[in-house]
Amino acid sequence: MGSLPTVVGVDGSAAALDAVRWAVLDAHLHMSDLVLVSAMSLPKALTGVGVLPEPVVEQSNSEIGRILDEAAAIAASENATVDTKTVSSENSAVATLLDLSTTSRMVVIATRGLGGAEQRSLGSIGFAVTTHARCPVTVVRGWSGDGVDHSSHPVVVGVDGTTASAAAVELAFEEADVRSAPLTAVHSWSDADLSIGFPIRGLEWPENRPAAAGQLAHMLGPQTVRYPTVPVRTVVVKDRPVQALLDHAQGAQLLVIGSHGRGGYGEMMLGSTSRSLLARAHCPVTVVPSPGRRLARITGNGTGYLDGSLGHVEQFGDRSGS
Questions:
Q1: Does domain 6-135+297-319 have CATH number 3.40.50.620?
Q2: Residue-wise pLDDT tens digits, 91-150
Q3: How many of the other CB atoms lie within 10 Å of CB of 27?
Q4: Burial of 107 (0-12, 13-18, 19+ CB in 10 A)
């Protein structure tokens, strides 16, 4: 299939299996392979000699195998034509997924897995991966795919004029195109809440709204030419971008955002707007890394995950697609 795979992290939790279901759809739409990844880093230092007892290692390997088998069965039941592989790693989940992000088109993770019960916040693994990954990362919460009409549920993208949001716009158009879905582009004129404090002359919204709408049209221009069949709805609001994006994401099948906004710089940590959306959005959220971070990724043939450095790799030959 495609040269770069869709990678999904699994840990045996129900949330991770929802992420698998979304990743199968993503791989099918983009004609890419699917790579199921499970990592279990064992604390060798606890033994004092740096070597774990063989039964502990065997139990760990058995548990990883069970987790991957369950995820592979889910993937096959969702779409048996997607070419599926499994990767088991003795490294940490964060290190494994970040390594794979250099040769992947997408990394997919659940909001929180076995490490946390609260689904309304982003776990430590999710925060680290979305902050440092070299490819886009989709965070999935409670997604089963049942009843999703791709032609009516839009893809929503946040647009703020930064290079990070330009990359998000490009990906959002691509996702809308492969889904035959409409696109809603949301642009907030100000990141601040302008209802607080005294009115400032020259910042009156009615006078500035036409310019903001024109700026949004300019930012979307190259992609509307590239994807002429994607229906585009533009939304321009005065302020509070998080609330505007959450409002429009309620009926969306996907929300696409940049890793940071107008207050950030190329290699900064995940921006406050992105963090809020990841914690509060009800639909899957794709975080697109800054161009500077993506430049560092390896863009070879996309088979870096088969070099043996991450552990055992198994090919499910009976699930190969056309």
A1: no
A2: 889 999 999 999 999 999 998 764 544 444 456 788 889 999 999 999 998 776 766 677
A3: 30
A4: buried
